[in-house]
Design goal:
- The strands form 4 sheets. An 8-stranded mixed β-sheet has the order 1-2-4-3-5-16-6-15, sandwiched between helices. A 4-stranded antiparallel β-sheet has the order 10-12-8-13, covered by helices on one side. A two-stranded antiparallel ribbon has the order 7-14.
- It contains 9 helices and 16 strands.
- It folds into 2 domains: about 280 residues, 3-Layer(aba) Sandwich (Aminopeptidase); about 110 residues, Alpha-Beta Plaits.
- It is α/β, with parallel strands linked by helices.
C-alpha cells in the first residue's frame, strides 16, 4: 500500500500542482470562498466522490467509503480562505485578486487534500472504513470556520474517531514534516480597549484629561504584570500579551477625547485564560480611575489551545517515519501562534502536523503572512501522499 500511494503521488503530482496554482491565483477572503468551494466541488464531481456543500455557506464534506465502510471513520481537514495581503511575487500564478493572497498556504492545504482524496478514491477497494474530507472556510477570522462547521454537525454522520490536518512550514525544508504530541499551540483572544479622557487644546493642560497618557500607563501596567520577567506575578504558563495598534485622532496641539487600543492575548491553560481576562480588566480599570479617566475593556474570545492526542500523534510519527524515512520526521517546539483546528482537538483525538515547504537553495524562505510567501511545490507530493498514508494506517 505504501508503494502504491507513493506511485500515485508521483502520477498525480503535476495535476495537483496545477490545482494549487489555480487556487493560489484565485484567493478569496474568509467566509467568502464561493469560487474556491465551487472549484473543489468540480474536482470531486470529476472524480466521482460524493459530497455535501454549502455548509457554513462555502464548506464541503466529502466521503470516501472503503470496504466495510461503517467499521471506522477518519477525518482529514483543509482550510479554504486567504488573507488581505497584496502579493509581491513574480510568478505566473500570482494572485489575480489584488489585495488578497494565499499567504498562509491554505491553497497548499486544499490541493494536498484533493490529491489525497484522488489517491484514496482510487484505492477504496483496498482498505476498510471511511475517510471524511473536510474543506473548511474561515480559518483566519473569528469565530473560526472550524467552530461553525462543528456546530453544523461536521463531526457527525458518520462520526470520525480522529482527525488530521497539516500546515505549511516554510522554515522546514521540503520533504520533511514535523509533529508534537500533546500541547502544541496557544489559545488566542482579541483585546479592544477604549480609553476615555477629556479633549482640549494642548496648550491648556488644566482643561483636559489626556487619554493618550492614560493609555500609555495601561499598556505599561499590563506589560509589567504579564510580560516583564522582573515584575510579573502570573503562573508559570506560556503566555503572550501584546498590543499592535493605538489610535488617538488628535493632532500636535489637539488632545482627543478617547484612544483605542487593540491587541492579542495567548496562553495554554483554560483556567488561567479566564483568570487573566479578569486580571487585565481590573488592572485597566484601576489605571482609568487613578488618572481621572474611564474606559472600556472588551475581550473577543477566540480559538482554544490546540492539543495533539498523544497516542494518535505518536502513531502518526511512526507511520510518517515509515513513509518518508526517519531522517525526514522532526519533533516540533511549542508555538504561541494559534489555529482554529484547535476546536476539533477539543472534541475528538486530533493530530495537527507541519509540512516542510521551504528550499533555501532556491531562495524559498519567506514566512507565512508575508507578501512574498511561496513554496517549493515538491512539498505537494509529500502533502498528498502522507495524508493518504496516515488515513489508511489509522483505519487499520
Amino acid at each position: 500500500m505504501k508503494e502504491k500511494i507513493k506511485s500515485l503521488s508521483d502520477k498525480y503530482f503535476s495535476e495537483v500542482v496545477a490545482l494549487r496554482r489555480h487556487l493560489h491565483a484565485n484567493p478569496e477572503l474568509s467566509f467568502e470562498e464561493y469560487n474556491t468551494s465551487a472549484f473543489v466541488c468540480s474536482k470531486l464531481d470529476e472524480w466521482g466522490i460524493p459530497y455535501k456543500n454549502g455548509i457554513v455557506k462555502t464548506g464541503i464534506v466529502a466521503l470516501i467509503e472503503g470496504k466495510n465502510s461503517t467499521k471506522k471513520t477518519i477525518a482529514l481537514r483543509a482550510d479554504l480562505d486567504a488573507l488581505p495581503i497584496k502579493e509581491e511575487n513574480n510568478k505566473e500564478y500570482i494572485s489575480k485578486n489584488i489585495g488578497v493572497m494565499h499567504a498562509c498556504g491554505h491553497d497548499v492545504h486544499t490541493s494536498s487534500l484533493l490529491g489525497a482524496a484522488k489517491i484514496l478514491n482510487e484505492l477504496k477497494n483496498e482498505f476498510e472504513g471511511t475517510v471524511k474530507l473536510i474543506f473548511q472556510p474561515g480559518e483566519e477570522k473569528l469565530p473560526g470556520g472550524a467552530s461553525l462547521m462543528i456546530n453544523s454537525g461536521v463531526l457527525q454522520n458518520p462520526k470520525p474517531e480522529s482527525i488530521f490536518a497539516q500546515h505549511v512550514f516554510p522554515s522546514m525544508e521540503t520533504g520533511k514534516v514535523g509533529f508534537r504530541p500533546g500541547m502544541y499551540m496557544a489559545s488566542t483572544d482579541e483585546i479592544y480597549i477604549t480609553v476615555k479622557g477629556k479633549g482640549g487644546h494642548a496648550a491648556m493642560p488644566a482643561n483636559y484629561v489626556n487619554p493618550l497618557l492614560i493609555a500609555s500607563k495601561v499598556l505599561v501596567a499590563l506589560q509589567s504584570e504579564f510580560m516583564d520577567e522582573k515584575t510579573r506575578t502570573i503562573p508559570n504558563i506560556p503566555t503572550v500579551l501584546a498590543f499592535g495598534k493605538i489610535t488617538g485622532m488628535g493632532a500636535t496641539n489637539v488632545i482627543p477625547d478617547e484612544v483605542k487600543i487593540e491587541g492579542t492575548f495567548r496562553t495554554m491553560d483554560e483556567k488561567w485564560r479566564e483568570e487573566a481576562h479578569e486580571k487585565m480588566k481590573d488592572i485597566a480599570a484601576k489605571v482609568f480611575v487613578e488618572n481621572g479617566g474611564s474606559g472600556e475593556f472588551n475581550i473577543m474570545k477566540g480559538y482554544p489551545f490546540l492539543v495533539n492526542d498523544e497516542t494518535l500523534t505518536k502513531n502518526a510519527i511512526a507511520n510518517a517515519k515509515e513513509f518518508l524515512g526517519e531522517e525526514n520526521v522532526e519533533l516540533l517546539d511549542l508555538r504561541m501562534t494559534a489555529e482554529d483546528f484547535a476546536f476539533y482537538s477539543q472534541h475528538i483525538p486530533a493530530c495537527f502536523y507541519r509540512l516542510g515547504t521551504g528550499n533555501k537553495k532556491l531562495g524559498i524562505t519567506s514566512g507565512v503572512h508575508t507578501s512574498t510567501f511561496d513554496i517549493d511545490e515538491e512539498a505537494l507530493k509529500t502533502g498528498m501522499g502522507l495524508m493518504a498514508w496516515l488515513a489508511i494506517c489509522e483505519l487499520k
